[in-house]
Amino acid sequence: MQIKSTTKMTVLGLDLEVQSLSAPTPTDAPTLVFLHEGLGSVALWRDWPQQLCARLGCAGLVYSRQGYGQSQATPDVRGASRQVHGQRHGRLLPDYMHHEALVVLPALLQALGIQRPVLLGHSDGGTIALIHASRHPVAGCIVMAPHVMVEDISVQAITAAREDFEHGRLRQRLMPFHADVDCAFWQWNDVWLSDAFRTFDIRTELPGITAPLLAIQGEADPYGTMAQIDDIARAVPHAQLLKLPDCGHSPHRDQAEAVAQAVQAFVGDL
């Protein structure tokens, strides 16, 4: 039987919510590390990581980034970005995904003794996985609806999310999943809608990925087009692509079985 435990860990001075999933049986399979979307958290994955790890027979790690879920909130999240006693205050900077991929994630993996994981990232988490895999050794990299550059469709959808958060039901829907829902929303929304972020582009970094790579995109994703994973394939010729019909921005929810089968086959070949 798989054992799930959720705790707080201090990483680089930050208290992060961390959930560990033990392998159903002893195994030398790599640990699957789940990296959540821009409004995600440990809880918003629901039981999908546990189901997937049980299906694959591997251990898993799920965590909430700073300001999300039950992790430490960012002080003055809409104020000027600055460092106070070594910790970030204020708005996220356009390089926030690089910081997560190249500073926070390596420190977390080292603290837990996880070497050469399989990264599984969704949306912003997919981008973080790609950046990490371009610089650090991983056993494999799986990305769902990643962002390798900023498209107009993304900005339009994120602008609509702001309207829904301020005047619709989005804030209420997110509240059960974040200790500080305003921190979670605004740190993501403000940076994505900033002028400085419009030039965000990691395509020149992708050729650094030598590990096996699976990129998944829904054909009805309101946050990005197929250009996202087509550009990944151009930069990383060994990448496998999965394009899913009747699928929006969350392939693991919209096409759960198709994604699980693809991940199982991918991990089985590692």
Question: How would you explain this protein's 3D organization?
Answer:
The model has no long low-confidence stretch (mean pLDDT 96). Helix 7 (227-235) links the parallel strand 9 and strand 10. This protein is 36% helix and 19% strand. It is α/β, with parallel strands linked by helices. It is built from nine helices and ten strands. Helix 2 (96-112) packs across helix 3. The strands form two sheets. The chain has an eight-stranded mixed beta sheet with strand order 1-2-4-3-7-8-9-10, with helices on both faces. It has helices at residues 48-56, 96-112, 124-135, 152-167, 170-174, 181-192, 227-235, 251-254, 256-268; strands spanning 4-11, 14-21, 32-35, 60-63, 82-84, 87-89, 118-122, 140-144, 213-218, 240-244.
Extended strand count? 10
Percentage of helical residues? 25-40%
**Element order: H for helix, E for strand:** EEEHEEEHEHEHHHEHEHH
Strand content: 15-25%
Unreliable residue stretches: none
Query: End-to-end distance, in Å?
Result: 24 Å
Brief rundown of the structure:
The protein is α/β, with parallel strands linked by helices and 270 residues long.
Output the keywords.
two-stranded antiparallel sheet, single chain, 9 helices, about 270 residues, 8-stranded mixed beta sheet, alpha/beta
Topology, please?
Blueprint: E1 4-11, E2 14-21, E3 32-35, H1 48-56, E4 60-63, E5 82-84, E6 87-89, H2 96-112, E7 118-122, H3 124-135, E8 140-144, H4 152-167, H5 170-174, H6 181-192, E9 213-218, H7 227-235, E10 240-244, H8 251-254, H9 256-268
Parallel strand pairs: 3-4, 3-7, 7-8, 8-9, 9-10
Antiparallel strand pairs: 1-2, 2-4, 5-6
